[in-house]
C-alpha cells in the first residue's frame, strides 16, 4: 500500500489563511450586527458592542480546524492559532468600543471570556485531527501467512 501524500507548505498556508478569513468574518459580523447603546428607560441603558450569537457561532470553527489539521498534520497548532487570533482581536475591539463610548468599567475584561474559552476547543480539535490524520497516513500493516514448507 502506498503512503498518502503530505500537502505542500503553500497549500497549508492557504488553508490557514482561509481559516483566519472565516474567523475574521464572524468577528466582523458580530461587531457589525451589535446594537450599540440603547436607552430602554428614562435612566437605564442597554449596551451591546458585539452580537453574542455571532460570537458564539465561532465555536463551530472546531469542525474546519479538525479537518484542516487532519489533512495538514505538521501545521496543527498554526491551524488553531489562525482561527483564534481574529477572535482575540475582536475582543480587543469590543473593549475599545466600550471604553470609547464611555461605558468602560471593570466589566469590560469579560470580553476575553469567549476567545479564552475557545482556545482549548480549537487546540483540542487540531490535536485530535492531527492524530487521526497521522494514523490515516500510516501504511497499513499486512501480514501474510508463512510460506508452506
From TrEMBL:
This is Uncharacterized protein. Keywords: Membrane, Transmembrane, Transmembrane helix. It comes from the Bacteria. The chain crosses the membrane at residues 12-32, 52-70, 77-95, 107-128. The keyword Transmembrane applies.
Amino acid at each position: 500500500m502506498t503512503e498518502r501524500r503530505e500537502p505542500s507548505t503553500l497549500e497549508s498556508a492557504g488553508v490557514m489563511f482561509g481559516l483566519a478569513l472565516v474567523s475574521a468574518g464572524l468577528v466582523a459580523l458580530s461587531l457589525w450586527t451589535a446594537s450599540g447603546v440603547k436607552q430602554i428607560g428614562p435612566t437605564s441603558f442597554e449596551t451591546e458592542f458585539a452580537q453574542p450569537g455571532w460570537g458564539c457561532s465561532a465555536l463551530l470553527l472546531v469542525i474546519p480546524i479538525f479537518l484542516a489539521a487532519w489533512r495538514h498534520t505538521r501545521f496543527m497548532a498554526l491551524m488553531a492559532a489562525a482561527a483564534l487570533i481574529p477572535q482575540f482581536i475582536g475582543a480587543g475591539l469590543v473593549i475599545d468600543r466600550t471604553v470609547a463610548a464611555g461605558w468602560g468599567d471593570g466589566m469590560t475584561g469579560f470580553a476575553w471570556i469567549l476567545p479564552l474559552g475557545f482556545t482549548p476547543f480549537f487546540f483540542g480539535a487540531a490535536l485530535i485531527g492531527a492524530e487521526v490524520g497521522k494514523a490515516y497516513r500510516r501504511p497499513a500493516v499486512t501480514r501474510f501467512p508463512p510460506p508452506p514448507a
